[in-house]
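HUMAN: Now follow token order:
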Amino acid sequence: MFEAPESQYLVPYDGSFKVNDASTKPQTDGHNHKGKHRRDATENLNKLQRVLAAGDRHSLLLVFQAMDAAGKDSTIRSVMQGVDPSGCQVFTFKKPSSLELDHDFLWRSTCRLPERGRIGIFNRSQYEEVLVVRVHPKILTYQRLPGELNLETIWDERLTSIRQQEEHLARNGTVILKFWLNVSKDEQKKRFLSRLDEPAKNWKFEPGDIVERRSWDDYMNAYESALNATSRPWAPWYAIPADDKPYMRARVAEIIIGSLQSIGLRYPEATPEDRAMFAESRAELTSDE
């Protein structure tokens, strides 16, 4: 079963992670996702994606969670640029539909898991159910849960369900990498103001973003609980500093590439029967006038 590559941003598995200790700023002089470094990363990831597809043994699931304006969309776009689009699928999880509310909270993300040989990307995910819903528990009334609702136990129960599902997926060949793009409150403020000040960015701004910003401390507590409960060797969380976008993207790309390299991807080997068929096909092709 896949085990996470080491990184200074890897969330430990012993429940000791503290949001207040996680830096939002770069902690090394590592390369940014620019120029030659970006081209090299793109080429490496493109090659690995082709082998992943050919081998058809594993899938890769990338989960991105963050506060608004942390850079989820741009990171996905930048890191995956140059990768065969037919080998990837991106899903964004927003307000649940009535159909989704008629199922358990894991249903809508389960339906969108990547097939073997493909890369699946979740822009937000099932973790919204222990983040935004935990910060705004009134949302639970729309989910029509059976029995008496217990806010003292439901979050641990949901985190257990997520953790167990991820272990099941890992046992069956899904490589799971989860990225919390850790932006500071001050940097978020700058980016919101930029969206207001620059006409080309006005479309990105939503008044609801300011409402959610008021609950910043509650969100940080929810993130800390979720990451501690679900960061495991087979489904790790990485708390990536997000105040510097090029640095953030480079670290995400490195972790993805290192993870795919670690599972021993290789092209399928031809069997003796295959080779016999190849010989017959070659003979027919070379004799064809």
Summary: The chain has eleven helices and five strands. Strands lie at 59-66, 88-92, 119-123, 174-182, 237-241.
